[in-house]
Amino acid sequence: KDVQKEREPHVYLSKEEVKEKIQSYNSSVTDKLKMTLNANGIYTGFIKVQMELCRPITVQSSQSQGRCTHSNNETAFYLPEGCVNTLHISSTNTVREVIEALLKKFFVADNPAKFALYKRCHKEDQVYTCKLSDREHPLYLRLVAGPRTEMLSFVLREHETGEVMWEAFSIPELQNFLRILDKEENEQLQILKKRYAAYRDKLEEALGGVWKPG
Fold it and tell me: Residue 176 belongs to what domain range?
């Protein structure tokens, strides 16, 4: 269930409170991805981000794998479904910086403004997905929620169609997308043609049996 709700306030924590929460967090970690508190009060740790991208991303051809369409030195590339990436960040990193780091890690050339980071959490036996603002701090959210990803997880998506900043796309990117859509449309058309051809053969066979002289 996607929701657009009021942002939860970022409660100020003292250094001692942060220390206590980090100790509690680390005691519950099962994958060795612990947090570290530095002398200056900034803490570092890890977050996992699920990549739920429906549209192709633009990467350098030498880095691409999977289903793609080439254009000069760049490739329009579909990330595999269920892809999860782990990032090491600090408590000062914002959502926008996390998005930029993810794209850099995947060698993505697309404008970060095309993407949004969501948090997915469980409340009252329901799953809620809420888009985070660019200024929120994912590691703080991770610390407060604890290490269990079933309680809180992060998801990277494209902006909704109505929110897409089409001016952020380059002409080659848009041309690549059109080529991919044309290819997929043709593939679906061929599948439909084969399906209805099979139906027609079965109907003709059935009709032949009905009208066959006894």
Answer: 168-209
